[in-house]
Design a protein that fits this description.
Blueprint: H1 5-13, E1 19-21, E2 31-33, H2 37-68, H3 79-89, H4 115-137, H5 156-168, H6 178-193, H7 195-224, H8 239-254, H9 259-267, H10 269-280
Antiparallel strand pairs: 1-2
Helix pairs in contact: 1-2, 4-5, 4-6, 6-7, 6-10, 7-9, 7-10
């Protein structure tokens, strides 16, 4: 780090740069103008070096400050990428390459689902989607919710068709169970007081279903539905474009958030995974 002592010394020198002290036996009290341009050149050279030291030190400090400014993974691409990064880390390694969570059960390929368990899962899922759609379509003190109306990702109507099909096959449709009821209640509470946390759940529910959810639906259909594709796993239009449209909306909404609000949203991801996981495990009940 540059010392400030040479700077103060150089300032003293340049108050009267044209005078110097003659050093000799007869003239140590006598001063005269320094007309030797080589000596003046040395003085100016020294001053230039001091200026360069100050500029260099200032530049180093700025670079250090920039280096210590925390950059969040995915931040440069938009807030949705930040949410995706956090969500991927909560997957197991066999589910996603970024996954860090240890498996807590057999992989999906080894699941042994039942019709009754799958119906419990579909009924509870419908309750959650009903709640999400009701919240974004209702008048709210948080106008940003209106951005997520009629996105094309809605699942309630499709789930209603699937449950009607099961009913026609002679299966009794159960009432929602505690995992679905608890999650729906939690979403309603969040939506009234904590928009950042609510939008975290909105993102993870819809986007997880469009990815891993479809894979699970396919595996279950192969084992107990004779490979029938349910309406739950169908979308009107190009799914990738529907998802991109919602990404753009989420990024726009998050632009007005502070860094603290964004972090609060990211921290809610674990709760989203827990609630959704409780409902998903109903398939094996």
């Amino acid at each position: 780090m540059a010392s400030i002592t040479p700077i103060s010394q150089s300032q003293a020198l340049f108050k009267k740069p044209e005078f110097g002290v003659l050093r000799g036996a007869k003239s140590h009290f006598l001063a005269k103008p320094i007309w030797d341009f080589s000596q003046r050149s040395k003085l100016f050279s020294r001053k230039s070096k001091m200026v360069l030291v100050v500029a260099s030190t200032s530049g180093t400090a700025s670079a250090a400050a920039e280096k210590h400014k925390k950059r969040y993974p995915g931040e440069a691409k938009g807030f949705v990428e930040e949410m995706r990064f956090v969500a991927m880390k909560l997957h197991t390694k066999d589910q996603a390459k970024e996954g860090e969570k240890e498996p807590q059960g057999p992989p999906v390929a080894k699941w042994e689902p039942s019709i009754e368990g799958y119906l419990n899962f579909l009924v509870d899922s419908k309750l959650v989607y009903d709640t999400l759609e009701k919240i974004v379509n209702s008048k709210s003190s948080f106008p940003e919710y209106a951005e997520f109306r009629n996105t094309g990702l809605e699942r309630s109507e499709n789930l209603a068709k699937d449950l009607e099909w099961f009913k026609e096959q002679g299966h009794a449709i159960p009432e929602p169970s505690m995992p679905g009821v608890n999650y729906a209640r939690y979403l309603e509470e969040l939506s009234e007081k904590d928009p950042q946390a609510f939008i975290c759940h909105f993102y993870n529910i819809y986007f997880a279903h469009s990815a891993g959810g479809r894979m699970i639906g396919k595996k279950v259909a192969e084992k107990i539905l004779n490979k029938k594709e349910l309406e739950f796993y169908k979308w009107d239009g190009d799914l990738s474009q529907l998802l991109q449209n919602v990404r753009d909306k989420l990024n726009r909404v998050a632009e007005s958030w502070t860094r603290e609000e964004k972090n609060h949203c990211l921290e809610e991801t674990k709760k989203s995974f827990k609630f959704s996981g409780d409902i998903l495990r109903l398939i094996l009940s």
